[in-house]
Amino acid sequence: MTFPGSPCEHVAVTLQNASHRLTIRSACVVIFWVLMASATVEASSGPNAATEIDAAASVWHYGAYLDVGYIVNFNFPENHLWRNRVTAARHNEFAPNMAYASVRKDAVKSSPWGMELGIQGGYDSERFAFLQGEREVSGADTLRHIHRANISYLVPGEKLTLTAGLFESLIGYESLYANGLNNANYTRSWLADNTPYMMFGIKAAYQISANLEVATFVINRYAHLAYTNNQPSYGTRWSYQATTQLKVMQTVYAGPDQTNTGLQFWRFYANHIAEWKGDRLTLAASYDIGTENMADRPGNPRAFVTGGNVVARWHVTGPWTVAVRPEFYWDRNGRWTGSEQFVKAVTSTVEYRIFCKRTDTIVRLEHRWDESTGAGGGFFSRGALQPGVISLTPNQHLVLLGVLWTFDSGRSK
Questions:
Q1: Contact 225/144 with Cβ under 8 angstroms?
Q2: pLDDT (tens digit, 9 = 90+) per residue, 118-149?
Q3: Looking at the 3D structure of the chain, how many domains does it have?
């Protein structure tokens, strides 16, 4: 036990920070070398080693990605920023928002060890792993450049897959990357920007039947590069393919995300998704709700957040696709976004896609309208209320051009 303000407390905090930093970095190193060892064993053992090497090559994938954009914000804020946002947040200037290079090995029956490893950079990698105002872990400026770093194992029987390390979040529909499988628009929704894009820990996914999968996870915290305490968080997700076209999912999260780890201050969050996919039309609906008592505010008020959106994506013809996403987001106490606000938004996107051998180039033209009201609502605008204080306005119109380029060695030429 340490006492506030004592030398022991400062030593304990320093040791905790160092321990956490070493834990994450050591895990990434271990993940890499364990995978290399397992791949070597699989490729070099047995009488049919040459055949196994050829088969293993087909489960290895190398990739690269580049996302650049120019967003015109008609409020023309002097700081060029989108208030309370972490992705596509640089406006009225050329923005290299994301780039990464990665290697991935699939876990399959003949080669059950899998992995993901990659590095990333760009504006969208700067603040994606924290909520507004949260303290960063020591070394976060380096760790944010890790795209993925995990190993996985397909247990004999092919129903259970175990994963450890840094992996894609089980909460939410959209990806950190604008080219993500479910990202019909260039800019992400308010739900996506305020739920985890990645998770650091372990997960187990079990295929109960052809239509039903259940997964559980134990992770370091809600935002994996925020530092609040050394207690783990927990969650579960189920995914059900109701018909050939309809899929429904729910993820539930619970854990201590404040310095006071008492159960009465735990965060509880639930994410719900329904997706219908036709030959040319995709419809998806998301609804989230979260709550926690705030230990650092007088009276420990209960924070509450909720939001939802609907995505409609229609493949018109050939390379042309259009999408629209209306949404709302209510952060009653400012715990998630940093401001007490109610947001409404509508995003409309036109997409042109070019396939060339193993590359995929997407050009998106997009218009977005946001309205933020409430005690802390508003977006940055031109001018200042007083020196150093930028004025706010409740509405924001954006028009943008985004270019997304992807290389995947696993894609057919």
A1: yes
A2: 999 999 999 999 998 889 999 999 999 999 99
A3: 1
**CA 274 to chain CA mean position, Å:** 18
- Tell me the per-residue pLDDT of 376-410, one tens digit each, with 9 for 90 and over: 999 999 987 777 788 999 999 999 999 999 999 98
Spatial distance between the Cα atoms of 80 and 380, rounded to a whole number of angstroms: 8
CA angle 275, 278, 280 (to 5 degrees): 120
Contact assessment for residue 299 and residue 271, using Cβ atoms and an 8 Å cutoff: no
Q: Cα 386 to the chain's mean position, in Å?
A: 36
In a domain, 180, yes or no: yes
Residue 402 and residue 366: Cα distance in Å, rounded?
Answer: 8
Interhelix angle 7-44/49-57, rounded to 10 degrees, is 120
Structure tokens that stand for 172 in this block: 């939410």
φ/ψ (deg, to 5) at 14: -60, -45
Residue 195 lies in a domain: yes
CATH classification of the domain holding 380: 2.40.160.10
